[in-house]
Design a protein that fits this description.
single chain, 375 residues, alpha/beta, TIM Barrel, 2 domains, 12 helices, 29% helix, Alanine racemase, Ala_racemase/Decarboxylase_C, alanine racemase activity, EC 5.1.1.1, isomerase
Length: 375
């Protein structure tokens, strides 16, 4: 059962609205920013939790022709929607999975010598070709400083020796976060040297944040992810992206507390005077981090109830969280609460919880009712 599509609004504790038109608009904005570089789309992790199928369909119909996923099964799902797109699988090629890549014309991003050898051997032994009759595609991921996945210079030389067996259409690397400017400069320098060993392959280095870095070469293909989904790729500056998600819940009970009464399983919040609290039908299983009520500065997060910011109190349970609605207008069971939306962006929500926006997006629970807007 796919809860995200089968649960109805009346059954759901939370409703996640995804604006597909905004995702397309964000991709179009990035395409303009990137100039001559092709603007691809990263749709791994179920399109950052928002639904790979609807997101790929919307972007493909808008003209996006290159997609990046993390796993082959995601690539297979994307291929069913985008029959002639280039689809790259970022996490490399697992043992004994080469036929899957060939069957669905997926390009493995080869990150190690064993992967290169496996792909080369498969291509040589089977003689498989693309639907157009060309060599099967692949990409090389170059290790330039993160030390997670990728080819060091000596690995690359071995890969080049076998690269006549398949078509290396792309060389790429992953950059450090934008705040590590000195590290990024060193990465770019290493990448520039290594990529010249495959001069016919297109090059890719820029993710969402790197697109907006000054003096960062965009090369041939850019790989935005977070920015597509409304996250700010320029921290500390106004967000150039349109908001994409809205997360709402309902009040399921309202009660008045006397001074000294406590809230939640951890009993960490006590009323300092008469307070009116509202319990809403959302919790960690819906993607609400426990840290929203336990931030270092004590500020915590807030929800929007009747147009007022109401702080989370008493800890976040699996299914429930309480907010202090004492300063709001009249509240009753069934009222809608904005958790993420026009007043609280993804970045605001993440900052209040002390986590990244990536984590928030991909945590949004499958038991939310997910609805899509196209206009």
């Amino acid at each position: 059962m796919d809860l995200a599509t089968e649960v109805t609004p009346s059954e759901a504790g939370t409703i996640l609205t995804v604006d597909l038109a905004a995702i397309v608009a964000n991709w179009q904005t990035l395409r303009v920013v990137c100039g001559d570089a092709e603007c691809a789309a990263v749709v791994k992790a179920d399109a950052y939790g928002l639904g790979l199928g609807p997101v790929v369909k919307a972007l493909y119909e808008a003209g996006c022709k290159t997609f990046f996923v993390a796993h082959a099964f995601e690539g297979r799902a994307a291929r069913a929607i985008a029959p002639d797109a280039a689809i790259f699988v970022l996490n490399g090629m697992r043992p004994n999975t080469a036929p899957l890549y060939a069957d669905f014309n997926l390009a493995p991003v080869l990150c190690s010598v064993p992967e290169i050898e496996d792909w080369g051997q498969y291509c040589a032994v089977t003689g498989r070709r693309t639907p157009e009759g060309g060599l099967l595609p692949a990409a090389f991921r170059l290790e330039t400083g993160l030390n997670q996945l990728g080819l060091k210079p000596y690995d690359l030389e071995h890969g080049i020796h076998l690269s006549h067996l398949f078509d290396v259409t792309l060389v790429m690397t992953q950059l450090a976060r934008a705040e590590h400017g000195e590290a990024i400069a060193k990465q770019i320098e290493k990448f520039e040297i290594m990529r010249m060993r495959l001069p016919k392959a297109r090059a890719s280095i820029a993710n969402s944040g790197a697109i907006f870095l000054e003096a960062n070469p965009l090369y041939d293909v850019v790989r935005p992810g977070y920015a597509l989904y409304g996250g700010n790729p320029t921290p500390g500056r106004p967000n150039p992206m349109k908001p994409v998600v809205r997360l709402e819940s309902q009040v399921i009970q309202v009660r008045i507390l006397e001074p000294g009464e406590r809230v939640g399983e951890d009993q960490g919040w006590a009323a300092r005077g008469p307070r009116r609290i509202s319990t809403i039908s959302a919790g960690t299983a819906d993607g609400i981090p426990q840290s929203l009520t336990k931030t270092k500065n004590g500020a915590g997060g807030a929800a929007i109830v009747q147009g007022k910011r109401c702080p989370y109190i008493g800890g976040v349970g699996m299914d429930l969280v309480a907010v202090d609605t004492s300063d709001s207008g009249y509240i009753e069971r069934g009222d809608i609460v904005e958790l993420i939306g026009p007043s609280i962006t993804i970045d605001d929500f993440a900052a209040a919880a002390g986590v990244s926006g990536y984590e928030i997006l991909t945590r949004l629970g499958q038991r939310c009712h997910r609805r899509y807007q196209k206009l």
